[in-house]
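Amino acid chain:
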Amino acid sequence: MLNRCACYCVKKLEKYYPIASDDRDVYIYGFEILFSTLFSLSSVTILSLLLGHIGYALFFLLFFFSLRLFCGGYHASTYAKCFIITNLTFLSTVAYTYLIMLAKLSFIMPVLFLVSAVIIWISAPVQNENHPCSEKTLRKNKIISRSLVCIYVLTYILIFVLASDKQIAVNAAWSFISVSIMIIIEKIKQKGVKNNERNQCKNC
């Protein structure tokens, strides 16, 4: 579906703007990413409205989406799986927020936030085979991701200290923590692949 929509948009674009045949696939991929992102943003916003708290979507978009662009980590192999995982990740941040508030453990969130910040600082960016990048892009993403981590740590401290509703601070923390979890999952996946390759070489 996304591919058909992307191809349609490229055909329309070609009527007004000449596109080299070698660049056509790049434009199609760009439109696919655009539509995939818009669908995910829309669904997260709708879910947040249904849950009665637009702040959930705002903090998820701020702390999760923006960091994922530069930090990398686990990525699904298809757009449909990506859409599902993104929404499940969002819903999990909401569920964990309710559990933490119910257990009155909001005071542990700054610690978890800082641990996640260290993980992201050390590990990011983590390249995924579904989203390959050049060495130049990886270096740039490392600088950006570390800059964002610093900004978000300071932002979270202000939110936690100043917000009268700790539920907001807890949800913001889980959105940030989700990025570090995605990085850890991809790291474990890559380590497993390397171990399998070593075992295969030993058996040769």
Summary: The mean pLDDT is 85.
